[in-house]
Design a protein that fits this description.
This protein is of the alpha/beta class. The protein folds into two domains: 152 residues, 3-Layer(aba) Sandwich (Rossmann fold), CATH 3.40.50; 215 residues, Dihydrodipicolinate Reductase, domain 2, CATH 3.30.360. The chain is built from 14 helices and 17 strands. The longest helix is centred in the middle third of the chain and has 26 residues. The two termini are 39 Å apart. It binds 6-O-phosphono-beta-D-glucopyranose.
Length: 516
């Protein structure tokens, strides 16, 4: 009889129910905006269907639009029908809608906050005395400072009769100086333990799984260092352009839009030392140590360690697409990068000599986010390989999206005479294992964590500022004659040619290990 590994299946009803957050209210500033309709309300409705919201939870939308409560509820129902994953069934929607309210107000107007405060105090609290509140800034970044200052001035941030927390969306500043100024403005009204700076990548199940993969398994961590790893690649490719966001994007570019936040978050989780606990301070301390160990990219290094590109007109999957400079609100001479690749070094014991190559761009061949760990080749070849070729290295692909899972590539013998080798993949995929619905939206997880007071998956002020220092130094280099040429690339491919030479000159190549 063969002895088989036996993995105990856990039935869904056996999975322990997570703790429900305590009674609380949520205020959404920017309630008539896109983020509220596309992400926040659909995520809150999903949480409601799963029974995860606090008892008697109320959501108060606020913006300048003059909705009545009923109009707001109707708008939000339409939003969930259009953008949500869950069907809207009246019997389930009705109790959710009962907790939806609207309080019109101008975010710049101090008196409107007093009205809002009065309205919040008037809402019943399910018999609980606490007036716990989560404020969510779903507004354009230029209003963040007004909102926090006005909340502070109206006495709405003091935790005398319940907790007060604030969620701040990205972009958090435009550069280091503006991020520091914003941190200091927010700190005048809120303590750091009340602030939840969102990066939706941290809410993705597969991003959290990086930590489980590394620290709940004993077999990978011993290899996770300069002795066994040749280099790491982090790719965040998008098959779309900038859409109608030209006004924002042209002042941001890919480094601010994607690297300062998402790619550096992926880098820190991949490279950090094991935290002593899965707890906000321990986790964020380790991430910050990685950012502090990043070798700066000085002006003189930009040509060698960075690539910048911009898409031209062409075709993606048979569809004609406009060039970046023809997009709405983009000038004909814009120098903004829609693609970048970086070579980063982490100057600590674990990673000395192991480059991390990061790349991200718009209008590429496909949408995929993946982290690829390339191990060193076997030290001695006892099998013959085609002339001039060594054995392929082992690769580990951490596939963040869309085909979430892990791929481990190794060599195997092709059956038959001789010793011919071929690379094969051992694969794990989330969906077939846990079910199609097992991956909740990032916003569900993050909203729930904020309601529960868990800051682990939110960025701390020092993390944000260190990430900006790196991005600022690259932008400073890009402003000088030392900058690499802005390389124009055809849509539907893998970015500019210079990106291939960039990694190629180190004797390496970009790899797409995960399925798309
Ligand atoms: C956002 C960027 O933060 O992330 C967008 O502003 C980008 O430009 C998006 O398209 C990508 O997120 P996701 O979850 O689709 O990979």
């Amino acid at each position: 009889m063969t002895d088989k590994f036996h993995i105990q299946e856990i039935a869904p009803e056996e999975i322990p129910e997570p703790r429900r957050p305590e009674p609380s209210k949520m205020v959404i500033f920017g309630a008539s905006g896109d983020l509220t309709s596309r992400k926040l309300i659909p995520a809150l409705y999903s949480l409601h269907l799963k029974g995860r919201l606090p008892r008697g939870f109320t959501i108060v939308g606020s913006s300048r639009t003059a909705y009545s409560h009923e109009e707001f509820r109707r708008e939000m129902r339409q939003a969930v029908e259009e953008f949500g994953d869950d069907p809207v069934i009246t019997s389930k929607w009705a109790p959710f809608a009962e907790g939806l309210f609207y309080s019109p107000g101008n975010i710049k107007n101090a008196e409107d906050y007093e009205k809002l405060d009065g309205f919040l105090r008037g809402l019943s609290d399910e018999g609980e005395n606490a007036d716990n509140r989560l404020y969510y800034l779903a507004v354009a970044p230029q209003f963040y400072a007004d909102a926090v200052t006005n909340l502070g001035a109206a006495g709405m941030t003091a935790e005398n009769d319940g907790w007060r927390r604030i969620v701040v969306e990205k972009p958090f500043g435009h550069d280091l100086a503006s991020a520091q100024a914003l941190n200091s403005t927010i700190h005048q009204s809120f303590g750091e333990n009340q602030i939840y700076r969102i990066d939706h990548y941290l809410g993705k199940e597969t991003v959290q799984n990086i930590m489980v993969f590394r620290f709940a398994n004993a077999i990978f961590e011993p290899l996770w260092n300069r002795n066994y790893i040749d280099h790491v690649q982090i790719t965040v490719a998008e098959s779309v352009g900038i859409g109608e966001r030209g006004g924002y994007y042209d002042t941001a570019g890919v480094l601010r839009d994607m690297f300062q936040n998402h790619l550096l978050q992926l880098l820190t989780l991949t490279a950090m030392e094991p935290p002593i606990a899965f707890e906000a301070t321990a986790l964020r301390d380790e991430k910050v140590k990685v950012l502090r160990a990043l070798r700066p990219i000085g002006v003189a290094d930009t040509a060698e360690r960075t690539v910048r590109g911009q898409y031209v007109a062409g075709q993606v999957m048979g569809e004609k697409v406009r060039g970046y400079r023809d997009e709405t609100d983009i000038g004909p001479n814009s120098q903004t990068a829609t693609y970048a690749a970086l070579k980063l070094h982490i100057d600590n014991w674990r990673w000395q000599g192991v480059p991390f190559y990061l790349r991200s761009g718009k209008q590429l061949a496909t949408k995929t986010t993946q982290i690829m760990i390339q191990f060193k080749c076997a030290p001695h070849l006892m099998f013959s390989s085609p002339a001039g070729e060594g054995l392929p290295p082992n690769l580990l692909g951490i596939c963040i999206q869309p085909d979430e899972g892990m791929h481990l590539r190794f060599e195997t013998k092709v059956p038959g005479a001789g010793m011919t080798l071929r690379s094969v993949d051992m694969e794990f995929h989330h969906r077939p294992t846990f079910g199609e619905d097992a991956l909740p939206s990032a916003y569900e997880r993050l909203l729930l964590d904020a309601l529960q007071g868990d800051q682990s998956l939110f960025a701390r002020s020092d993390e944000i500022e260190l990430a900006w220092s790196l991005v600022d130094s690259i932008h400073a280099g890009w402003e000088t004659d030392a900058a690499p040429e802005l390389d124009f690339y055809e849509p539907g491919g893998w970015g500019p040619d210079t990106a291939r030479h960039f990694i190629g000159q180190d004797g390496r190549r970009w790899r797409e290990v995960c399925g798309h």
